[in-house]
Design goal:
alpha+beta; Glutaredoxin; 2 domains; seven-stranded mixed beta sheet; 19% strand; globular; AhpC/TSA; AhpC/TSA family protein; Thioredoxin-like_sf
Length: 201
């Protein structure tokens, strides 16, 4: 029950943010009176409590070691776990929203620099409806389509935000070594040269 409530809070918080905004939401302190079942809630600010809980989640660092997960390949629907990651290469996860302009730009920039990234596993992961994700790479990163080291994954059960990290902004990048140890991460917009450097170092 607690896990379900936390998952719902995380998901609603993520969906409540501007997907790729580089500004943080301000927390406005409002007090409302709501009487039900004989309880006066004038002294409680539920919105502030939810925001505080979300802020605590955001402050948690990403998983230092890549945990077990189950995502699904977008095109086939076949499950994809951490055991399916090709061995011997670094792995980059990009948590994205298909409607996020910064995510679209990053996909395009990665596509144009594919030759520098062909030795790295790159997984685009999203919790969005697969129908919204269906043509993401074809539209914004067509040079990445069909490449053996590139995959778009559907996170049907919100495992990324439960097991790996809750970012403040999209796109969020997580680079893990071939041994599954976190090397670097960032969220939000970043220069393509900095992205490539972080991926290949």
């Amino acid at each position: 029950m607690k896990k379900t409530m936390l998952s719902t809070l995380l998901l609603s918080t993520l969906l409540g943010l501007s997907a790729c905004s580089n500004t943080t939401n301000s927390n406005t302190d409002t007090t409302t009176v709501d009487s039900h079942a004989g309880h006066d809630h004038a002294s409680q600010d539920h919105a502030s409590a939810a925001q505080q809980q979300a802020n605590e989640v955001y402050q948690k660092a990403p998983a230092e070691t890549l945990p077990a997960f189950t995502f699904y390949k977008l095109k086939s629907g076949i499950s994809f776990t951490n055991q399916d990651i090709p061995a011997g290469k670094k792995t980059a996860f990009i948590l994205f929203d298909p409607n996020c302009g910064h995510c679209q730009t990053e996909a395009g920039q990665l596509a144009k620099n594919y030759n520098k990234l062909k030795d790295i596993n790159i997984f685009f992961v999203s919790m969005n409806d697969p129908a919204l994700m269906a043509n993401f790479l074809e539209t914004f990163g067509k040079e990445l389509v069909g490449k053996a080291n590139i995959e778009v994954l559907y996170d049907r059960n919100q495992e990324f935000i439960q097991k790996i990290h809750v970012p403040k902004q999209f796109p969020a990048n997580y680079v893990y070594t071939a041994e599954g140890k976190l090397q670097s991460y960032w969220d939000g917009d970043r220069n393509i040269d900095e992205i490539i450097k972080a991926y290949v170092k």
